[in-house]
């Protein structure tokens, strides 16, 4: 179900709908991902022409704390063109008409997204994982002055508990972040 109260002139950002986050065989796979697909599609239809699909792609070799991160998660230290970093087939129709942004960071609010949306846009966020890349994007965007709407049903956490914790965290940033 899609939440009411979403602005029609917003930019819709689907964060990291990739195999690595959707597959049950992945260490990072979300058990909630398939349930988030229907709301993602409905939102993409609503925001035709104003949709951005992002991908997390590692910077290799990793620098700074990312070197520590990939020491903990060595399976993920692969090039961005590895099939595990591909978009899931279930979003191919959305991706075909969307803008694309690849970033080597959890948060996707950066120069590439700002170049599309402007510096202080209204954003509608969906994607995976709620408790990592979604929350990192929402906080950075809100801190920069964007109005952020997070659609809970279109997000997938690493598990249900972490999903709810991340949503609760983002609710603390009202009115800059609204969780629907």
Automatic annotation (TrEMBL):
Keyword Hydrolase annotated: yes
GO terms assigned for molecular function: hydrolase activity
Residue stretches making up the Isochorismatase-like domain: 11-179
Transmembrane segments: none
Keyword annotations from UniProtKB, A to Z: Hydrolase
Gene3D superfamilies, A to Z: Isochorismatase-like
InterPro entries attached to this UniProt entry: Isochorismatase-like_dom, Isochorismatase-like_hydrls, Isochorismatase-like_sf
Entry coiled-coil feature ranges: none
PANTHER family for the chain: ISOCHORISMATASE-LIKE DOMAIN-CONTAINING PROTEIN, PEROXYUREIDOACRYLATE/UREIDOACRYLATE AMIDOHYDROLASE-RELATED
Protein known as: Hydrolase
Taxonomic lineage: Bacteria, Bacillati, Actinomycetota, Actinomycetes, Micrococcales
């Amino acid at each position: 179900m899609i939440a009411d109260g979403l602005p029609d002139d917003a930019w819709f950002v689907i964060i990291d709908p990739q195999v690595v986050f959707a597959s049950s065989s992945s260490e990072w796979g979300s058990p909630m991902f398939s349930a988030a697909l229907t709301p993602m599609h409905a939102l993409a239809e609503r925001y035709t022409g104003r949709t951005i699909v992002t991908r997390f792609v590692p910077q290799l070799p990793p620098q700074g704390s990312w070197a520590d991160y990939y020491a903990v998660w060595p399976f993920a230290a692969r090039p961005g063109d590895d099939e595990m970093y591909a978009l899931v087939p279930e979003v191919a129709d959305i991706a075909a008409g969307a803008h694309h942004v690849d970033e080597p960071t959890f948060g996707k609010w950066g120069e590439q997204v700002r170049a599309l949306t402007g510096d202080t846009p209204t954003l509608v966020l969906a994607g995976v994982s709620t408790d990592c890349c979604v929350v990192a994007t929402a906080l950075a965007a809100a801190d920069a002055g964007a109005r952020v709407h997070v659609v809970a049903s279109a997000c997938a956490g690493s598990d249900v508990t972490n999903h709810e914790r991340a949503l609760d965290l983002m609710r603390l940033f009202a009115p800059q972040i609204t969780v629907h």
